[in-house]
Design goal:
The chain has two domains: 60 residues; 44 residues, no CATH class. Helices cover 47% and strands 12% of the residues. It is built from two helices and four strands, in the order ααββββ. The longest helix has 31 residues. It binds zinc ion. Zinc ion binds next to loops. Zinc ion (ZN) binds next to loops. Its main location: membrane. It is found in: Cell membrane.
Length: 117
């Protein structure tokens, strides 16, 4: 089964966005428990927490973006950001690498984990 890769920044962004939606859904479900104030409060708090969480994740993306290396994608010509040794273009999902040794090799996200200290 081929794994679908996408840019790390895009992935985190999708995650943050889904956290917002999950938060709203949880709060919405809480409204159905109006007769049980404790249940409703719990749901509201959980929903609130996941919205806060997404704000934190968005902040984290901002921090990551400043550390990411800007490169011009050879495939679509747009400027994209590379996180780690290998990443995907944010626009066309072209695999990009900062390590010349990995150039031409098949894209593998595991390269990021093999970083030696
Ligand atoms: Zn591209």
């Amino acid at each position: 089964m081929a794994k679908k890769y996408s840019s790390k920044i895009n992935k985190i962004r999708t995650f943050a966005l889904s956290l917002v939606f999950i938060g709203f859904i949880i709060m919405y479900v809480g409204i159905y428990f109006r007769q049980h104030p404790w249940v409703m409060t719990t749901f509201m708090l959980l929903g609130f927490l996941s919205i806060i969480g997404s704000t934190v994740v968005y902040f984290w993306i901002g921090m990551l973006s400043t550390k990411a290396v800007q490169v011009t994608c050879p495939n679509c010509g747009k400027v994209t950001k590379v996180l780690g040794r290998v990443d995907m273009c944010m626009y066309c999902n072209e695999p990009l690498t900062l390590d010349p040794k990995l150039e031409g090799e098949e894209f593998n996200e595991d390269y990021n984990k093999k970083r030696s200290r």
